[in-house]
Amino acid sequence: MDNKKNPWPVLSFFFICLSLNNHLSLGADTISANQSLSGDQTIVSKGGNFELGFFKPGNSSRSNYYRGMRYMKVSLRTIVWVANRETPVSDKSSSVLRISDGNLVLFNESQITIWSTNLCSTSSGLLEAVFLDNGNLVLRDGSDNSSKLLWQSFDKPTHTWLPGAKMAYNNRTKQNVRLISWKNSEDPAPGLFALELQQNNSSYIILWNKSVPYWNSGPWDGNIFSWVPEMRVNYIYNFSYVSNENESYFTYSLYNPSNISRFVMDISG
């Protein structure tokens, strides 16, 4: 398959009208060590931007439920992150998200672990999972108001790149942060297309079937990607690129923080 240099083929941004809805929730942005989340219970980020709960994708009639994040202030349900994207649950009322053995863990209806933060070393402190208003779910030691994060969802995105998150390459472990498309509109399992930062190169590539180059942004010149000239007319995003011995990454913010925007690795590539 030939490389395609068409600008912005999958990086879609959305500016969506706002609306507020009422939802059953724990009334907080935190899951503490003695709390759990099940059924229709949700947690909401402190400023009300995001909600974490169970959802059914698309118009699926199947009893497949996924634990995911969505925008709260968008009328059309818009999922930005999925925990158990490959392993749905069939009974959300008996499936539980809680802190267990130093990890945030999702148990299915048979109380089998189907998703976990998968930390090797456990903390001796009192852990808590906090849902930040930028859409980042973090696991941290809450016993001393420590700012050190043990795990964060920004390091494990699914198909969406939110403002403030990094699209990175770890120069030590040689691992990428990848955006991977959904399989289809009814199934959030990993699909055919992935976006990642190239090793030793400040450009992004889209891979088809996880290995075949499909599109290239061209290298970063300090202001734009060379094969995306439309970025010269940009009044929306403020991009920055950082490269050091530990990692190389892009991150971005919005010139107008009141806008709602995201980049998406679409199922169409």
From TrEMBL:
<dbReference type="InterPro" id="IPR000858">
    <property type="entry name" value="S_locus_glycoprot_dom"/>
</dbReference>
<dbReference type="Pfam" id="PF01453">
    <property type="entry name" value="B_lectin"/>
</dbReference>
<feature type="signal peptide">
    <location>
        <begin position="1"/>
        <end position="27"/>
    </location>
</feature>
<dbReference type="Pfam" id="PF00954">
    <property type="entry name" value="S_locus_glycop"/>
</dbReference>
<keyword id="KW-0325">Glycoprotein</keyword>
<keyword id="KW-0732">Signal</keyword>
<feature type="domain" description="Bulb-type lectin">
    <location>
        <begin position="28"/>
        <end position="152"/>
    </location>
</feature>
<protein>
    <recommendedName>
        <fullName>Bulb-type lectin domain-containing protein</fullName>
    </recommendedName>
</protein>
<dbReference type="GO" id="GO:0048544">
    <property type="term" value="P:recognition of pollen"/>
</dbReference>
<dbReference type="InterPro" id="IPR001480">
    <property type="entry name" value="Bulb-type_lectin_dom"/>
</dbReference>
<dbReference type="InterPro" id="IPR036426">
    <property type="entry name" value="Bulb-type_lectin_dom_sf"/>
</dbReference>
<keyword id="KW-1015">Disulfide bond</keyword>
